Amino acid sequence: RIMRPDDANVAGNVHGGTILKMIEEAGAIISTRHCNSQAGEPCVAALARVERTDFLSPVCIGEVANVSAEITYTSRHSVEVQVNVMSENILTGAKKVTNKATLWYVPLSLKNVNKVLEVPPIQYVRKEQEDEGKKRYEEQKLDRLETKQRNGDVIFPVINPEPHTVGYSQSSLIHLVGPSDCTLLGFVHGGVTMKLMDEVAGIVAARHCKTNIVTASVDAINFHEKIKKGSVITISGRMTFTSNKSMEIEVFVDADPFVDEPQERYRAVSAFFTYVSLSKEGKPLPVPQLLTETEDEKRRFEEGKGRYLQTKAKRQAQMQQAAR
Amino acid sequence: RIMRPDDANVAGNVHGGTILKMIEEAGAIISTRHCNSQAGEPCVAALARVERTDFLSPVCIGEVANVSAEITYTSRHSVEVQVNVMSENILTGAKKVTNKATLWYVPLSLKNVNKVLEVPPIQYVRKEQEDEGKKRYEEQKLDRLETKQRNGDVIFPVINPEPHTVGYSQSSLIHLVGPSDCTLLGFVHGGVTMKLMDEVAGIVAARHCKTNIVTASVDAINFHEKIKKGSVITISGRMTFTSNKSMEIEVFVDADPFVDEPQERYRAVSAFFTYVSLSKEGKPLPVPQLLTETEDEKRRFEEGKGRYLQTKAKRQAQMQQAAR
Amino acid sequence: RIMRPDDANVAGNVHGGTILKMIEEAGAIISTRHCNSQAGEPCVAALARVERTDFLSPVCIGEVANVSAEITYTSRHSVEVQVNVMSENILTGAKKVTNKATLWYVPLSLKNVNKVLEVPPIQYVRKEQEDEGKKRYEEQKLDRLETKQRNGDVIFPVINPEPHTVGYSQSSLIHLVGPSDCTLLGFVHGGVTMKLMDEVAGIVAARHCKTNIVTASVDAINFHEKIKKGSVITISGRMTFTSNKSMEIEVFVDADPFVDEPQERYRAVSAFFTYVSLSKEGKPLPVPQLLTETEDEKRRFEEGKGRYLQTKAKRQAQMQQAAR
């Protein structure tokens, strides 16, 4: 579809969250269709995880985003979907790859939302495809377990913070979950949650560097808990790390399902977003360094540095391999 | 209401689809009100058909669109509504007629959506009004039967198409039907469908001519099949004909009601849209000629030429009549 | 227009904020049109104030809201607009008055947004109309000055608050101002701000009583400061007072115009919203009493009680007058 002014920031760059929402919608459609392709209980595919996603080039207002999706692996209870986004300037005809994302879905019964159904197996052209898929499946399963433990953290408000400290840019947003945010099962679309997360992370980044910013990448996101229609969700973000030209922001999503049943507030999702600041010509600008004050902030900064260096090393390895 | 940036293309011209959606909403309100004006089973008026509609002048961001609707004929089971759209520049006070549209609605029972109810008859000031209305009613009935047969066509993707061929500009979009897209009966508003159709047709036109384009007219659209909440709809468009300064695009809407019942995908609507390309001063520009390759493409081009010449002849006849 | 699921809460009641936004759009159209009706510098009418507004009956999904607006007084630099909203159930034909609102607009030059232009005077049918209008004008002018002073207050976060305290339900929301939120001058529509304020106030009310809530009334709102496109706005709300069956919530809007120029954050608007809790049959329910802890909270509770008793007395006087 054509990118509209509301999809973009004042500089005309489309929000990463808008792209993530489109990706997730495509993934939900193809996996729901696949899971209902055999006779049996009707179901809706729910997003369980998105692998790390890089935003390879910014998309602008007026461009058309082409989204294509393909199922690349099925386990007994989950579906792996590969989604590609190309942006096309329909005036010049120029096309660019914007994103390649990998998403995992789980089919939930339409009659009983707590029941996970079986996934019809797909056919592989080559045996290796199935083996590689299985390896990816095992890896993500392990990572999901790990994040489940990390998820207990809370962002505390800071009074009168200094510029460039963590407290200065941290932000939060509340959102009342409406009908259009939800699937047929009455739970929030993963893509809607990711869009809100990107919105908060973008505000944190902009408050820190006070220049035009764009989403550069999103680390793997695990959706451990569903969020019901009518809930209030609080999305909070804080900066954890800055390199010379990038900022890492951690985002938490907490749900308050208070209307129907006075259940406790719970952590539904958390993730790391990376932003860069762009000049008017689209070049990355240096960003102000994050001032860490407490022990926790220093520890999180070091952890962020670890993730940054690891990603950088992985990317260099890939480039060397590609150059051979 | 005031036209917003999201309602318009990058040149500031409001999308024809936004106007069509407003027209349909006005028509749905007036005809639902009329069909419930007598005691009896409550019902919701569903759009059955929109007559050919010309876009007489483009609307811009910041202008106010005034929509007025009037019931002009009733048959036993259908209502004809005339909707006029005026755009008003509230800064200068200038008003222009933008559209005159004729829509046909059918009252469906709120309790049983497959039951068509009877329409309370309206009073005519003059006997001729009723006769003319009846003639329009018979004509549209005939036309509806014809399009029902044409509806089987499918758009196949083309790999590495040449510029200005049919395959080069053809486009498609998928949309998951959400609650706000639907009437009280749980079926998609005709206006929502038309807005999506205009969006796809606009992308096809812009891909072909790579300049600023606006909707010039829409041929009669027949809504043969309802689309249910939760369906996935695929809207596809391909260019069929070009004159010196206009492009005709055929648009298909297919619905996949895959979640609830594993029914087959079906063709819900199809229509022809005509676009022109505008210079910065608002003058129509020449458009590149469509290159037809296959026999089918050549046949569709000739058919489009037929429609084009017929419309041109009709318009000239009207102008001569008006000049007398 | 037809009320959609997205306009309403889970119980199907349309949000007060949606109605306020429609009211303001109607007021902006009629006053912009009036202020440009004489030759001279083109201008856009900006919302300066909304008088206290009561929500007389809830509107439901599927109903049509009819909005009508009329200019009732003009001073040299401002326009008073009276807007009435009727909700209509188009199935039964039943109509109810939903709102009567009075809004004040000021014409700002399109070329220089800081320049307030002169308003063309309107004609009054009776001399008393002008005198009464002038009285209303003087009253609102006085009230605007008063609120300007109150505006310095700030909401501090509370850690681990007890249920039914002020800290327990207080909430805040950040919003990045997009193009569709703004007028031609590039400043946020008053209606957009009011919709966001109602959203936050509604969340505060729901968090406090954990039942279905609806907006009952909004006290006069003064728009002292404009908010520019690209700003981040923080909307915060806290409960100030509870009667047996109503809750008063104070809402603050702060703007951060950080992208363009590193200006300081400023208070743009503040207002009091009153909510009631409704049973499934639409009857008002008792609400839990607000627990006040600090001196400030107790003072604000007493002030809220004063406003509540004053409104009650005024309403009784009106009813007695009407009964005569």
From TrEMBL, chains A, B, C:
Localization per Swiss-Prot or TrEMBL? Cytoplasm
Residue stretches making up the HotDog ACOT-type domain? 1-111, 167-281
Keywords linked to the UniProt accession: Cytoplasm, Hydrolase, Lipid metabolism, Repeat, Serine esterase
What segments bear the compositional bias annotation Basic and acidic residues? 296-306
Top class in the EC scheme = hydrolase
Q: Name one GO biological process term.
A: fatty acid catabolic process
**Region annotation Disordered: where it falls in the sequence:** 295-324
Q: Which CDD domains match?
A: BFIT_BACH
Lipid metabolism as a keyword of this entry, yes or no, is yes
Gene Ontology MF term list: carboxylic ester hydrolase activity; long-chain fatty acyl-CoA hydrolase activity
Pfam families from the xrefs? 4HBT (PF03061)
Q: Which SUPFAM superfamilies does the record match to this protein?
A: Thioesterase/thiol ester dehydrase-isomerase
Q: What is its main location?
A: cytoplasm
State its Enzyme Commission number(s).
Answer: 3.1.2.2
GO cellular component, alphabetical, reads: cytosol
Keyword Coiled coil present in the record's keywords: the answer is: no
| Active site per the UniProt annotation | N9, D198
In Swiss-Prot or TrEMBL terms, this protein is called: palmitoyl-CoA hydrolase
Q: Native species of this protein?
A: Fregata magnificens (Magnificent frigatebird)
Q: What lineage does UniProt assign to this protein's organism? A: Eukaryota, Metazoa, Chordata, Craniata, Vertebrata
Q: What would be the name of the gene that encodes this protein?
A: Acot7
